[in-house]
Amino acid sequence: MELHSSLCYNGNMKVWLKYIIGIVLGILAALILPLDNAKAADFLSFLTELFIRFGRYLVVPLIFSTAIVSVNKLRTSKLVLKTISWTFLIIIVSSLILTLIGLCSILLVKLPRIPITVELVPEVYKLDIKQLILSIFPYSAFETLRDGTFILVSFVFASLIGWESGSELTMFKPIFSLADSCSKLFYNIAVFFTEIMAICTIAIMTNWMITFRSILKTGIYTPLILMLVCDLVIVIGLIYPLIIRFVCHDPHPYRVLYASIAPMLLGFVGGDTNLTLPLSIRHGKESLGIRRRVGGFTYPLFSVFARGGASLVVAISFILIWRSYSSLSFSFQDTLWIFLMAFSLPFLLGNIPSGVAFILLTIICEQYAKGFETSFLLLKPAALILCSFASIIDVATSMFGSYIVAVKTKMVEHHNIGHFI
């Protein structure tokens, strides 16, 4: 009976179990089906892109309408400052911790060198801070709803509406009622989408597995993958539960990890923080009991700014590249430099929902110079793996962080673990 209740709720299979089944089927499809020819690979790539677009289809409408309601309610309940403070405190602290974990891992354990190869240098991402700031405020506020990548743009517009509509509750009640209804409507549609995404995960995982298999065959990146696996286990299995235990005084911190299984799996396979948002919001509400006024505010901000996973991965990757090129020891100044760069730069890459870890690596290599401008090419074949591990850690940060904010603002209704979706 206990096993049945842990796998099913109200007669329906648990969401996390559906995603695990989808991933297992994707792995089997990659191993069994003849997908090596160009036409099959092209079709599979098309399906993957289609399903990822499907998963991100409702992100902006859901975030926009929910943020209006969230900011409105936070203002009327006088919890805006407290929510903002806890949210950005967690973002900064988590990024610090994850960057330190990455540095300590690679400094304490010396991974085998990666053979140096000669490749054509692709176009490198150029960080344009001025343009990034300008993009938050387009010439028309309605243009913010067109950007499905940088969700901070629509979130800012929604926050302005939510804040002002909370100043005169009677006058702006129709605006709030419309946003409230849209939020509930888009949430219900998103629930359906998250169920369908479990099936779509089969194709996404198949495409992922084919690439991963080719990476694994070389054996070059296996030690790096093992280190990332160990760091992932330490972060989500030890450090984050301990933080929940002592910060929230929660005697059962692994409930949060259990509620995060499906979003983390989708984040790992899809490698896209925006893709996981509807699923994360759903689990936050229906499993962890995070109220909408907090979840609608924290999840978008964590998705944009909480990129500590990328910091961890890049700290390891850059030092591995250094050791592959040179036998010289890594000085304290160099260590401090990579720490500051890996910690700070991800905050400026919120407009990139996928592939941020490898893009960050290219930027750091270019900034370091000294002949390392194109050294990121050593890890280009493993870019998929790097981005997957960064994404799953960032999704975990979003789930654990949102729960902490909800507890600290007393905006959580604890559910029995048997009622988790």
Outline of this structure?
The protein has 421 residues and is mostly helical. The chain is 71% helix and 1% strand.
Secondary structure topology:
Elements: H1 2-7, E1 8-9, E2 12-13, H2 15-32, H3 38-56, H4 59-76, H5 80-108, H6 129-136, H7 152-165, H8 173-218, H9 222-247, H10 254-259, H11 261-270, H12 273-286, H13 292-305, H14 308-325, H15 332-344, H16 356-368, H17 383-408
Helix pairs in contact: 2-8, 2-11, 3-8, 3-12, 4-7, 4-8, 4-13, 5-13, 5-14, 5-15, 5-17, 9-17, 11-12, 11-17, 12-13, 12-17, 13-17, 14-15, 14-16, 14-17
Task: Report on this structure.
The chain is mainly α. The chain is 71% helix and 1% strand. The protein contains 17 helices and two strands. It has helices at 2-7, 15-32, 38-56, 59-76, 80-108, 129-136, 152-165, 173-218, 222-247, 254-259, 261-270, 273-286, 292-305, 308-325, 332-344, 356-368, 383-408; strands at 8-9, 12-13. The chain has a two-stranded antiparallel sheet with strand order 1-2. A hairpin with a 2-residue loop joins strand 1 and strand 2 (12-13). Helix 4 packs across helix 8 (173-218) and helix 9 runs parallel beside helix 17. The longest helix is centred in the middle third of the chain and has 46 residues, at 173-218. The two termini are 17 Å apart. The model is unreliable at 1-5 (pLDDT under 50).
